[in-house]
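Forwarding the complex inputs:
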Amino acid sequence: MISRKERDKQLRRSDILKAAEHLFALKGYHKATIRDIAKEAQYASGTVYLHFKDKNDLYFALLEEKMKSMLFTTKERVAQANDVKKKLEIFVQEGLSFFEKNQDFFRIFISEEDGYFSERKILKSSTGLQTQEYTAGLLREAQKKGLISKDFDAEQIAEVFTSIIKTIILNWLQKKDVRNNNLIDLSGTILRLFLKGVADK
Amino acid sequence: MISRKERDKQLRRSDILKAAEHLFALKGYHKATIRDIAKEAQYASGTVYLHFKDKNDLYFALLEEKMKSMLFTTKERVAQANDVKKKLEIFVQEGLSFFEKNQDFFRIFISEEDGYFSERKILKSSTGLQTQEYTAGLLREAQKKGLISKDFDAEQIAEVFTSIIKTIILNWLQKKDVRNNNLIDLSGTILRLFLKGVADK
DNA sequence: ATTTTAAATGAACAGTTGTTCAATAATTAG
DNA sequence: CTAATTATTGAACAACTGTTCATTTAAAAT
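Prediction (whole assembly, four chains):
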C-alpha cells in the first residue's frame, strides 16, 4: 500500500524529472542548470536536492526510466510475433520509433556528455545490461533458425547490431535539420544491411 | 618564403597545440583548462589568446589538423592499391590504425563534447567534407566494379560505412579496459559484415 | 487550538574558469 | 646604445553553478 505522503512525494519527483527532461533536451546536460530545472518545475533549487542526491543522480534517474520503458514495450511487442525474422523487424522498428519519439532528449548524446558518465555507465546500468542480454538472446534465436551464421559470437554480434542501430540514429539526429525522412522507414534498410550486407545479387 | 618571426610564431603555435592535445586527451575538453594547457606549453594563459581566438578555436584547430593528416596518409596508401577490394581494405585499416594511434585524443568523443561543437561542426568542416566525398568516391568505384549493388546510393552507403567504422571504434574505445584486442584486427570483420552481412552460407 | 514534525525556500557559499589588459620583458630598428 | 615596437605575463575580473543550511511555511498530531 502506498500512503498519500508517498504518492505526493512521487508526484513531486516526477515533476522535477519532467522539467529535467525538457531542459536537458533543450540545452544539454551542462547548460541546463539546477536553477532552470527547479524553476520550470515550480520549485526552489533546494527542493531538487530533497529528491536527488545531485545533478548526476537526477540525470541518471531520468535515463534509467527512459530505457526501462523502452525495454518494456519492446519486449511486449516482440513477444507477439512468431517467426524470428519478424521479431528482429519489430525489435528494430520499436527501437527506432522510441528514439524518434524522444529525440530531443537523446540529442544529448550527440551534443554533450560529461567525463565518466557517458555510455560507459549507461551500458553497465541494470537496464542497460538487461537490454544487451535481451538482444543477444534474440540473435541467438536467429542463429538457431539459421538466419545468422553460427561463426559469429552472439554477444559480439549483438553489440554490432545495437551499434549499427545506434549509429543510424545518431546520424539521423545530426542531419535532422537537413533531411526530413522518417527514422522508422530506415528499419528495412538496416535489417537488409545487417543480414545480407550490401553485396551484389 | 617564411620569415624567422613567422617560423617562431608557428613553433609557439604548435607548442600550444601539442600541450592541448595532451591535456584534452587526458582530461577531456571541459576539464582541460587554458591554464593547464598554457602551463604545460610553458607559457602564461594569456599567450594562448595570441594564437587562438578562444578555447573552441584551439580545439578545432587541433581537430582539423588531425583529420587532415589522416585523410592525407589514407589517400596516399589507398592510391597504391590496384583493385577496389584491396582499396577498401586499406581504407578501413588506415582509419582504424589512425584511431588506434591517437586513441587518447579521440577518447574525447566518448567522454564529453560541448553543445554546438560536436560532430555537426566537424563533419561540416572542410576536411570533414573532403573525407566524406572521398569515401563516397571509393564506394562508387566499388559499385562500378560490381562489388556493391547499384541499388544503393553511394553517398548514403558512404555514411553507413563510415558510421559502422566509427561505431566499432567507439565501442572499442569504451571497452579497451576490459578486452585487449587489436583494433586493426577487426578490419576483416568489418568489411565482411559490410559486404556480405552476417547471412548464413 | 497548540505543539511537533516535516517540507520548501532561496540567499549565501565556495569553487571554477574563460578571458582581458595594464604592466613587464624581450626584440628589433635606428 | 637608445628608442620604439612587439610579445608575454599573470593578477584581476566577471560570470556562472552545484550545493548547503538557517529560516520560513505548511502539514500532522495531539
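Residues 5, 30, 33-35, 45-46, 49, 54-55 of chain B lie near DNA strand C (CB under 10 Å from a C1').
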